[in-house]
Amino acid sequence: MGAFAVGRAVRGRNIWKYLDCRWKSFLFLAALSIATYLGARYYDIHCVNVKYSHMRLITTWTDGRLGNQMGSYAVLYGLAKLNGYKPYISKDMHSILSPLFRITLPVLDQEMEKLWWTYFDGNDWMSNEYRNMTPRFLWLHGYYCSWSFFHQYRSEILEQFTFHDHIRERARNTLAKLKGSRRNPTYIGVHVRRGDYLRLMPKRYHGVVADKAYLGTAMTHFRSKYQEPVFVVASDGMDWCKETIDASKGDVYFAGDSDVSSPGNDLSLLVHCNHTIMTLGTFGFWAAYLAGGETIYLHNFTHPDSYWRRLSKPESNYLPDWIGIQANISSLLAAPHSR
Asked: CA torsion angle for 179, 180, 181, 182 (degrees, to 10)?
């Protein structure tokens, strides 16, 4: 029994020794494979960076819907022109904008994603840090939309955001139907942002959305100025608009289709109007910016000490010649404010 036990122990030690050797071999081969992969990947990335080393490239990333994508595109375009970069957009941005507009910026491909990018997340208003940007490969992060980045290139931005013919034709046909018997109508696009702002404004930004009084004041301004105004309403809360906006004069048309998953038709309709009443959000900004004409916007719609005021500058959000109507924030001032 003693000899048998000893032999079994020896055999056991030999087996573990054998397995230990195999395990070491496995680890060595695994480490070698990883090192080979990383070396090849580094060499590949290095070659890509050498390939583009003679260029200065800039791109951007943003999520969000149409208005946010347009803002990021325009800011990218403006900063590229200002700093001598060649701009590229993401596939996602291209998939959102190209079905609507005749955009020309190329799409960033997978090879370019391997470049040694410098990531930049700054403020949404023009400042000195944007005037002399030095990284060779610059990747903008964040929600950019301020006109201060691109307004000096306005004519080029308008060209980039030219609608495709079939979208323009649909908008023109709709406005022609709204003309009715009017001889010289003046179309005023009215964009009423509600949707997620009903939740975000009071809870996150400590602000308010546009109310009946604001819309009434803005519409009175245009009614007093033009003999035959036609108000074209588009909104993501059309039921509220129909219940709230006074349409008794026969000059208000709830013409938007309210489809947030396909907003191009509403935007085109607003852009083809002569003037704009906007409330909140980048969608309304772009409706006004592309339409030109006179724009009325909701002014000071958050608590003076709100997160929104610290996040942005009102003067960078709206063009200087746009007309701001003070929002009613009495309910915010009366309630206790938590930062």
From this structure: -20
User: How far is residue 125 CA from its own chain's centroid?
Assistant: 15
Residue in 237, 239, 235, 242 with CA at minimum distance from that of residue 190:
235
| CA atoms of 257 and 270, how far apart (whole Å) | 12
Q: Tell me: do 124 and 238 sit in the same domain.
A: no
Residues 328 and 193 in one domain: yes
Q: Are residues 324 and 191 in the same domain?
A: yes
In a domain, 289, yes or no: yes
Q: What pLDDT shows up at residue 55? A: 79
Q: Is residue 159 part of a domain?
A: no
Residue 150 and residue 74 in contact, taking contact as beta carbons nearer than 8 Å: yes
Query: Sign of dihedral through CA atoms 123, 124, 127, 130?
Result: positive
Total number of domains constituting the chain: 3
- Asked if 147 and 124 count as a contact pair (C-beta separation under 8 A), the reply is no
| Domain assignment of residue 326, given as a range | 165-334
Does residue 123 sit in the same domain as residue 147?
yes
Q: How far apart are alpha carbons 274 and 291 in whole angstroms? A: 6
Report the predicted TM-score, pTM, of the whole model to 2 decimal places: 0.85
Beta bridge mates, 190: 233, 277
What does the H/E/C string look like for 43-77?
A: HHHHHHHHHCCCCCEEEEECCCCHHHHHHHHHHHH
Q: Quick one: average pLDDT of 31-39?
A: 59
Q: Which long-range contacts (CB under 8 A, 24 or more apart) does 122-128 make?
A: 124/311, 124/312, 124/316, 125/312, 125/313, 125/316, 126/316
Is residue 5 a part of any domain in this protein? yes
